[in-house]
């Protein structure tokens, strides 16, 4: 039996922490914009601060809450073993690991794996989702608060190629997409209990995109378009229905949403409708999702060329050939974009150079399909085997 | 602090602390964890109970593992996570009770999942003990546990062959194949044996059903045929003919020549699109028993056993693999009927040509159940 004192001390240690601008709480960070809100930028020149070996594969990104880095992985002959890992952001030491088992289908295309969705956090709990439709909520100290097996609940909610949509948490609701050809659904799940606040049918079509958050609405993308919903109720607030990509996700700023739709389409949702700001059919994002810095949007096309265009009208400003191919998306801090190609070449792009410029390339010597995270003046990036912290010099 | 005051938070957390939870004890906590159900049922109580279970002493670890027996997959994960915390702490303090875990592992009345976890923990704490146990797991009820001795026999055979002893290499690989239940290991062993001139009967090893009657084409325009109950769903009459899609639909005999039991509708019916086909066969079981029908299929499909729909799925061309779907079922003694509906859609890409499935009958370990009478 623990003493009262140790219980009290433990209780204090497990108190919720406030999230800060340095936190990177979900896939592509704040509002899923891919742009850091932290005043401290990693800058143009990075070096490996630490790296750690991982127990399994993953396309998921790390997320950072305070001084902790959270990451998921999957291992085993059928990718059936699901890992949630917590590392010290300072030195990479492993603080805890939890290992659970997939309750849904683990089949996927060999290029992806079960740990494809990125976890998210509200600063108190970490919500880890997998392609098998398993969803776990842990507190920051590794205590299991609740779990769900969404294929256990909805037997045909799966995709034999694997799923990858990352969850987002807004207020007290985790929004999860399980979109596929068969039982295609999205759910709003109460962060306190793990129970459904709402469940909605989604277009019956495979979909690997992740939601973005715009003015409190969660924007769910699918082949039919982009639908803004109230995360608490699941009610549709606005709906863009002119089609959209099923792999590449949207970019978001306070001024609008930039959708991979008919090239690239900028919309402004308002008053239960959406208005189209512009459309640039020539801006065709490849697998990486676009992002906005200041008054420009940056798109990486299927040939590995980064295109800078105005967010006022979509007019192209420059093109920069990079070393591809890319599966992961870029993220930005200040004037710099950080992105890794499939060959493990981590590249830093200075967007203020006249024609854009790759100002640093770090050879990580491993296949990388994931999107980086930014926190505290450092970039965190993972492969199937390793997690790196690349700190600004 | 985000929303709670420090004092309020402290009170809440103390209220949920192990001090108060301890009155319920571990058995009650395990009961609570085993009670969770679909759609988050029982999550709130489980969250509190999990703290109790995760604070268990090293000697209580096997009690948590035993709690996994018969638990639903969701409950099993709650218990697995708690066992992991207890084990991590015990291993770090060199307090893991390996003999107790070994006893648990060797007791096959426990579930495969909990026994597999026990083995993994033994391996982490004492690799020598795990190694000594490994050979005894070749015919284990857990397919996951069988992987260890099979892997060792694969390596043993390689070493024997390199040492020039082909007979011992073949013997090791034969023994490994007898125990192997996972396709990757079976394929590797079959290839090694064939490289040495040995014959391997994969259809029998897996238990694929090879002899079928097929009928097609029925309409599947706009994928609507998936929900249409065409005549074979009402009654299988192998002598009947029907108005099919653009042609008469009639039954034809089909024997799969594929060693992975592929039943390919494109062979007798040509490369049709927007169509539905059915496959029918009979399986004679020597006894009434639980079994699994395991299916691989990249088309829309439904499977009936003895007229009972086991499962259905309307996904097209997203991938196919052996044992993609595991359908628990109960075989009757004597004749059992198996009906498969296999739907082809409208897609025209080269990777959407396939209109096929593979089906085998086995036990929960993946061991083939062979028909007592061949068709």
Folded structure, characterized:
The complex is a heterodimer of chains A (393) and B (375). Chain A is mainly beta. Chain A is built from 2 helices and 32 strands. A 4-stranded antiparallel β-sheet of chain A has the order 1-32-31-30, with no helix packed on it. In chain A, strands 2-3-4-5 form a 4-stranded antiparallel β-sheet, with no helix packed on it. Chain A has a 4-stranded antiparallel β-sheet with strand order 6-7-8-9. The longest helix of chain A is centred in the first third of the chain and has 10 residues, at 4-13. Chain B is globular, with a radius of gyration of 26 Å. In chain B, helix 10 runs antiparallel to helix 11. Chain B is α+β, with helices and mostly antiparallel strands and 375 residues long. Chain B has helices at residues 6-15, 18-21, 25-34, 43-54, 61-67, 73-92, 98-106, 112-125, 127-133, 143-162, 166-179, 183-195, 202-206, 231-234, 266-269, and strands at 211-219, 241-243, 248-255, 263-264, 275-285, 289-297, 300-305, 308-313, 325-331, 334-344, 356-362. In chain B, the strands form 2 sheets. Chain B has a 7-stranded antiparallel β-sheet with strand order 2-3-1-5-10-7-8. Chain B starts with 5 loop residues before the first helix and ends in a 13-residue tail after the last strand. The longest helix of chain B is centred in the first third of the chain and has 20 residues, at 73-92.
């Amino acid at each position: 039996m623990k003493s009262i004192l140790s219980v009290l001390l433990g209780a204090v240690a497990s108190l919720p922490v406030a999230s800060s601008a340095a936190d990177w709480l979900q896939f592509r960070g704040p509002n899923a914009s891919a742009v850091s809100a932290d005043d401290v930028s990693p800058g143009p020149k990075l070096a490996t601060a630490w790296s750690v070996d991982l127990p399994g594969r993953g396309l998921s990104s790390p997320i950072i809450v305070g001084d902790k880095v959270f990451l998921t992985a999957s291992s085993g002959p059928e990718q059936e073993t699901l890992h949630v890992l917590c590392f010290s952001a300072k030195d990479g030491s492993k603080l805890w690991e939890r290992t659970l088992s997939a309750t849904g289908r683990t089949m996927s295309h060999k290029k992806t794996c079960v740990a494809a969705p990125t976890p998210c956090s509200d600063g108190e709990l970490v919500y880890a989702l997998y392609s098998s439709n398993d969803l776990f909520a842990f507190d920051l100290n590794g205590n299991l608060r609740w779990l769900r097996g969404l294929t256990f609940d909805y037997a045909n909610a799966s995709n034999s190629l694997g799923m990858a949509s990352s969850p987002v948490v807004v207020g007290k609701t985790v929004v999860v997409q399980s979109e596929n050809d068969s039982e295609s659904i999205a759910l709003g799940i109460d962060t306190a209990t793990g129970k459904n606040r709402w469940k909605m049918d989604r277009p019956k079509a495979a979909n690997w995109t992740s939601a973005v958050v715009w003015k409190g609405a969660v924007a769910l993308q699918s082949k039919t378009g982009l639908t803004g919903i109230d995360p608490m109720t699941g009610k549709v607030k606005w709906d863009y229905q002119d089609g959209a990509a099923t792999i590449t996700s949207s970019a978001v700023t306070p001024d609008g949403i930039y959708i991979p739709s008919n090239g690239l389409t900028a919309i402004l949702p308002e008053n239960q409708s959406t208005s189209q700001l512009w459309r640039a059919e020539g801006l065709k994002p490849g697998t990486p999702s676009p992002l906005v810095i200041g008054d420009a949007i940056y798109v990486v096309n299927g040939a590995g060329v980064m295109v800078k265009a105005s967010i006022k009208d979509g007019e192209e400003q420059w093109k920069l050939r990079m070393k591809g191919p890319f599966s992961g998306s870029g993220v930005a801090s200040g004037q710099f974009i950080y992105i890794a190609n499939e060959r493990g070449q981590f590249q830093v792009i200075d967007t203020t150079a006249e024609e854009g410029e790759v100002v640093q390339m770090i050879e990580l010597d491993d296949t990388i399909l994931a999107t980086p995270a930014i926190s505290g003046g450092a970039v965190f990036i993972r492969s199937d085997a390793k997690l790196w912290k690349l700190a600004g010099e | 602090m985000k929303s709670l005051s420090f004092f309020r938070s402290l009170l809440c957390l103390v209220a949920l602390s192990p001090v108060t939870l301890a009155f319920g004890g571990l058995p009650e906590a395990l009961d609570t964890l085993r009670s969770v159900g679909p759609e988050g049922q029982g999550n709130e109580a489980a969250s509190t109970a999990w703290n109790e279970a995760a604070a268990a002493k090293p000697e209580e670890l096997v009690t948590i593992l035993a709690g996994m027996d018969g638990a639903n997959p969701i409950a099993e994960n709650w218990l697995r996570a708690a066992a992991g915390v207890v084990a991590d702490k015990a291993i770090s303090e060199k307090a893991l009770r390996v003999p107790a875990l070994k006893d648990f592992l060797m007791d096959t009345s426990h579930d495969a999942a909990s026994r597999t976890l026990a083995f993994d923990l033994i391996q982490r704490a004492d690799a020598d003990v795990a190694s000594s146990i490994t050979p005894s797991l070749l015919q284990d009820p857990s397919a996951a546990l069988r992987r260890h001795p099979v892997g060792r026999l694969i390596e043993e055979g390689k070493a024997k062959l390199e040492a020039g002893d082909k007979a011992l290499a073949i013997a090791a690989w034969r023994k490994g194949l007898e125990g192997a239940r996972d396709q990757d290991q079976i394929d590797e062993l079959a290839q090694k044996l064939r490289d040495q001139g040995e014959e391997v009967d994969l259809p029998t090893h897996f238990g694929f059903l090879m002899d079928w009657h097929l009928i097609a084409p029925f309409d599947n325009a706009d994928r609507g045929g998936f929900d249409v109950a065409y005549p074979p769903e009402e009654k299988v009459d192998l002598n009947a003919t029907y108005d099919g899609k653009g042609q008469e639909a009639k039954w034809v005999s089909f024997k799969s020549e594929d060693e992975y039991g592929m039943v390919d509708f494109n062979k007798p019916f040509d490369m049709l699109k927007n169509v539905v086909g059915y496959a029918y066969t009979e399986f004679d079981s020597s006894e009434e028993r639980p079994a699994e029908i395991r299916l691989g299929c990249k088309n829309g499909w439904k499977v009936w056993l003895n007229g009972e729909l086991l499962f259905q799925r309307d996904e097209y061309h997203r991938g196919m693999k052996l044992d993609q779907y595991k359908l628990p079922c109960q075989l009757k003694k004597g004749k059992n009927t198996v009906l498969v509906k296999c739907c082809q859609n409208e897609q025209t890409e080269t990777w959407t040509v396939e209109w096929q499935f593979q089906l085998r009958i086995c036990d929960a370990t993946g061991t083939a159940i062979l028909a007592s009478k061949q068709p």
